[in-house]
């Protein structure tokens, strides 16, 4: 199950940009695409741990600033032929405010996935 | 939307490559049906020679096996040749009666070997060298027969002859001319080749006219016009290929030697496309693979309705795939009016190299015995590089150009565990394995799968060689490389369009030039942002989200996500107040590492991102501004102490360095730009490996340009000598502006000057006084918008505050 946290206004994130949300389990990067879709991934590239929030957003993808790995924003999967995945988190957009869903531990299997 | 029907006739390399390109960009547009005459998937025809020679198996040269088609929902009719096209009903009809309707039709029927019109040419035992069937026939003949005659001393004929000899046959090569491979070699190289092949056991009959193949049930001998007869259990005709255009002709599609197509690979019937060896484009038919690749890309783009790509013909290069013989040829290798030849001949080493040059640009190349530099010469040819600056050493090869420590080596002689890519630790064996297992064809693919040459790019040449040696002779790179995968346009085309159509934002460029992706990618966005800013200073919008993180937050990102901060020290000068402020900042923000840089600055490493504005505020308070150590911009002006202190100094090098840095700081450039001023020819500031370097002499100032340390060290070229500091400043501004206006993004001055030639730069800066003044004026004009300290702006909290603060803290 998820605890939902209000993390701020959509307008606080630049289009094709990202912001960081600090959580007890590490930083989460929240991305905004050109068409105002928002996505959240753990702020660590599966390659060498680069901060994805500092990358360049294009289409529905993010390029890591350290070694140019490209990841899908919706799934966190690296674009082939690279293989790897950054954990993704659910977001809700309500009246221009963004809500981040963090697993509260009541669903063990989902939690295992998140910390993997 | 109902899918359209696309039918491909010809299951060969060109056709299937087009499908691959199409599926990559428009996977859902078409229902695809493929007809192939051969009962199998698609294989790499260039590798038939190694199969014949027993160096590879048929399985190893398959590109797309049957499951590949099934997985993509492609209906494959293998082994069903098409007999007829009904353009009225838009149907193709196969020999067995299979009918398929089309909305678009792609013809890739390839070519047939040309069979000499002589008596006996239809006897069993007389074949061409074209497909797996021919190879199987030859292998069978080698098991039972003894004598083989190959008619044709071209590329294909020699590869066939070599293969048959390796299979144990006694082989005679018959050629109608006196030189082998006359379409690829000059007579000197052809003679070296003939001698070398004779030493291996091939026999040659040169200048011989074949009259007939003799035999009743089966080929038995070959007779020549002069009456000579030689025994032959197998006769291979390799005298040329003919585009296979019967089907198209019969359907009323306009053909000459091949199916005539336009720059989008459409025939006279716009629903009918054609690619590959069956095509005639601008009067040219191609029998090599590189042009097919380029055609496939353009054709796929058009089928996907991205109406942007044009095929404009190909420059081609060839390599002979006979193990142990290194041969490379490209372009016009025989010269002509206005051409000169640069030749290196070393019979003892068995090496012959010839470049044909016209006005200092490579027109053609023939290499025998040492072909390591083939791809480099081909690149010089394609890009029309001015070789004036290194003409005297060009034949010694690329390795000789710089101290890369790789003199006189061949990539194929390296051990499998030899490291090719030093950045990513990729060794030769891993690259070759990836090329073979993953069936890779381009440097981009090798880069994606192995990471070799994906970082600094200095090993790209080696990777190209491995690719050529592993899969055969071709090079996919079009004449002008596309800027990135989002577009077909090159850097220069984009830039020209920005200038001519006054495009002042990325959006305008994307819309006007029909970008294939909605908002570009990490490669093209920073490039275009630079191009609009440098072309329209004060007018173009700087798009922060299209800058690399370092330029967005004005510091250098480190491997752990912290940043490094380098304050500007004009000309490398500092004082106790600045040093005290730096020490205080290091203590206050617990900065773990403080280091002196190569450019005479102090680097504070390990600063947390949220601390950056406060660090800058403290440094600003002591009078320091951003050192732009993170930007594609003016970095540093390094100086020696000069005449103020040094007993050898001839001029005030430190003072001049400060003036140059004050003039140029803040300017954005295609890549980083470094300067230095030395006070005497001892050159303690190392000015001759900088983008712009000044060496002071007693009578004035020598101006040097186009040097760098880095991946490939390059010493500067002397641009000119001037008498006053003001002239140095004027030449400096003009040179920087020329580079800013004409260098490609991420191209440093060293490769830029090698590309356009020092003579060109001299003609713009030294030879053209009006032009120099105009460049200098444009430089100064653009500086009024650039010289704003980005640190002060951000330390104030009024600019880009969102970059430095987390959005929220939860839990």
Q: Give Rg of chain A in angstroms.
A: 13 Å
Dominant shape of chain B: elongated
Q: Write down the Rg of chain B.
A: 31 Å
Helix content of chain B: 25-40%
CATH class of the largest domain in chain B: Alpha Beta
| Number of helices, counting only DSSP H or I runs of 4 residues or more of chain B | 25
Tell me the CATH superfamily of chain A: Rieske [2Fe-2S] iron-sulphur domain
> How many domain modules of chain A?
1
Summarize, please.
With 116 residues, chain A is mainly beta.
Descriptive notes:
- The complex is a heterodimer of chains A (116) and B (811).
- In chain A, 41% of the residues are buried.
- Chain A is 7% helix and 42% strand.
- In chain A, strands 2-3-4-8 form a four-stranded antiparallel sheet, with no helix packed on it. A three-stranded antiparallel sheet of chain A has the order 1-10-9. In chain A, strands 5-6-7 form a three-stranded antiparallel sheet, with no helix packed on it.
- Chain A has one helix and ten strands; from the N terminus they run ββββββββββα.
- Chain A has 116 residues and is mainly beta.
- Chain B folds into seven domains: 168 residues, FAD/NAD(P)-binding domain (3-Layer(bba) Sandwich); 114 residues, FAD/NAD(P)-binding domain (3-Layer(bba) Sandwich); 76 residues, Enolase-like, domain 1 (2-Layer Sandwich), CATH 3.30.390; 61 residues, Arc Repressor Mutant, subunit A; 57 residues, no CATH class; 72 residues, Sulfite Reductase Hemoprotein, domain 2 (Alpha-Beta Complex); 153 residues, Sulfite Reductase Hemoprotein, domain 1, CATH 3.30.413.
- Chain B is built from 25 helices and 39 strands.
- In chain B, helix 20 packs parallel to helix 21.
- Chain B is elongated and about 105 Å long.
- Classes of the chains: A mainly beta (116), B alpha/beta (811).
- Strand 2 of chain A pairs parallel with strand 39 of chain B.
């Amino acid at each position: 199950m998820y605890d939902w946290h209000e993390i701020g206004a959509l307008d606080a994130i630049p289009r094709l940009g990202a912001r960081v949300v600090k959580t007890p389990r590490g930083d989460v990067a929240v991305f905004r695409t050109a068409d105002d879709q928002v996505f959240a991934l753990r702020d660590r590239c599966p390659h060498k741990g680069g901060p994805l929030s500092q990358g360049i957003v294009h289409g529905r993808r993010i390029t890591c600033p350290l070694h140019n790995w490209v990841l899908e924003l919706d799934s966190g999967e690296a674009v082939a032929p690279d293989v790897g995945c950054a954990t993704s988190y659910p977001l809700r957009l309500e009246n221009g405010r963004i809500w981040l869903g963090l697993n509260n531990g009541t669903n063990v299997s989902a939690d295992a996935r998140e910390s993997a | 939307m109902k899918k359209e029907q696309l039918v491909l006739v010809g299951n060969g390399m060109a056709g299937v490559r087009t499908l691959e390109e199409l599926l990559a960009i428009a996977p859902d547009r078409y229902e695809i049906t493929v007809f192939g005459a051969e009962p199998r998937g698609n294989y790499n025809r260039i590798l038939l020679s190694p199969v014949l020679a027993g160096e590879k198996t048929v399985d190893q040269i398959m590109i797309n096996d049957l499951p590949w088609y099934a997985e993509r929902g492609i209906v494959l009719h293998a082994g069903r040749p098409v007999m007829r096209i009904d353009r009225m009903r838009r149907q193709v009809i196969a020999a067995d009666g299979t009918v398929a309707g089309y909305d678009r039709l792609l013809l890739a029927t390839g070519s047939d070997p040309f069979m000499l019109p002589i008596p006996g040419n239809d006897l069993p035992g007389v074949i061409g060298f074209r497909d797996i069937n021919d190879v199987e026939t030859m292998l069978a003949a080698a098991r039972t027969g003894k004598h083989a005659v190959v008619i044709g001393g071209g590329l294909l004929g020699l590869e066939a002859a070599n293969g048959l000899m390796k299979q144990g046959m006694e082989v005679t090569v018959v050629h109608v001319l006196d030189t082998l491979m006359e379409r690829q070699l000059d007579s000197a190289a052809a003679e070296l080749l003939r001698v070398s092949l004779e030493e291996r056991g091939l026999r040659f009959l040169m200048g011989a006219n074949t009259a007939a193949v003799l035999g009743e049930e089966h080929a038995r001998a070959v007779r020549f016009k002069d009456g000579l007869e030689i025994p032959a259990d197998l006769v291979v005709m390799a005298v040329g290929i003919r585009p296979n255009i019967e089907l198209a002709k019969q359907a009323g599609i306009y053909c000459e030697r091949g199916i005539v197509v336009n720059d989008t690979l459409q025939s006279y019937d716009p629903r009918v496309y054609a690619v590959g060896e069956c095509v005639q484009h601008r009067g040219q038919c191609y029998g090599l693979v590189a042009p097919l690749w380029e055609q496939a890309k353009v054709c796929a783009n058009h089928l996907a309705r991205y109406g942007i790509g044009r095929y404009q013909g190909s420059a081609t290069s060839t390599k002979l795939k006979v193990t142990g013989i290194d041969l490379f040829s490209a372009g016009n290798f025989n010269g002509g009016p206005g051409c000169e030849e640069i030749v290196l001949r070393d019979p003892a080493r068995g090496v012959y190299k010839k470049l044909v040059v016209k006005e200092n640009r490579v027109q053609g190349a023939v290499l025998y015995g040492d072909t390591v530099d083939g791809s480099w010469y081909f690149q010089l040819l394609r890009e029309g590089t001015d070789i004036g600056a290194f003409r005297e050493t060009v034949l010694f090869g690329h390795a000789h150009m710089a101290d890369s420590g790789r003199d006189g080596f061949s990539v194929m002689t390296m051990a499998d565990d030899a490291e090719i890519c030093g950045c990513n630790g990729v060794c030769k064996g891993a690259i070759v394995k990836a090329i073979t297992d993953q069936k890779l064809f381009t440097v981009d693919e090798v880069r994606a799968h192995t990471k070799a040459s994906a970082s600094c790019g200095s090993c790209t040449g080696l990777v190209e060689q491995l690719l050529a040696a592993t899969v055969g002779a071709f090079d996919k790179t079009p004449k002008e490389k596309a800027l990135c995968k989002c577009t077909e346009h090159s850097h220069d085309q984009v830039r020209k369009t920005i200038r001519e159509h006054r495009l002042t934002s990325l959006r305008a460029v994307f819309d006007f030039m029909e970008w294939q992706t909605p908002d570009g990618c990490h490669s093209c966005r920073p490039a275009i942002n630079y191009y609009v800013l440098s072309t329209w200073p004060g007018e173009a919008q700087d798009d922060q989200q299209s800058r690399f993180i370092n330029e967005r937050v004005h510091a250098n990102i480190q491997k752990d996500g912290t940043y490094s901060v380098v304050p500007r020290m004009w000309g490398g000068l500092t004082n106790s107040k600045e040093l005290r402020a730096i020490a205080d900042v290091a203590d206050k923000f617990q900065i773990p590492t403080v280091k002196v840089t190569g450019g005479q600055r102090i680097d504070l490493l390990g600063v947390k991102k949220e601390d950056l504005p406060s660090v800058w505020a403290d440094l600003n308070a002591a009078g320091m501004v951003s050192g732009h150590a993170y930007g594609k911009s003016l970095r540093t002006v390094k100086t020696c102490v000069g005449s103020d202190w040094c007993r050898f100094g001839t001029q005030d090098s430190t003072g001049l360095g400060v003036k140059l840095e004050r003039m140029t700081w803040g300017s954005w450039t295609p890549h980083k730009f470094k300067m230095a001023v030395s006070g005497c020819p001892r050159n303690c500031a190392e000015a001759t490996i900088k983008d712009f370097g000044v060496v002071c002499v007693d009578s004035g100032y020598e101006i040097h340009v186009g040097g760098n340390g880095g991946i490939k060290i390059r010493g500067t070229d002397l641009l000119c000598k001037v008498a006053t500091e003001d002239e140095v400043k004027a030449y400096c501004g003009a040179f920087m502006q020329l580079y800013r206006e004409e260098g490609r993004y991420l191209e440093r001055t060293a490769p830029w000057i090698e590309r356009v030639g020092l003579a060109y730069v001299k003609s713009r800066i030294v030879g053209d006084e009006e032009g120099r003044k105009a460049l200098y004026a444009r430089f100064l004009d653009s500086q009024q918008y650039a010289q704003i300290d980005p640190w002060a702006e951000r330390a104030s909290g009024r600019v880009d505050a969102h970059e430095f603060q987390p959005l929220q803290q939860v839990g």
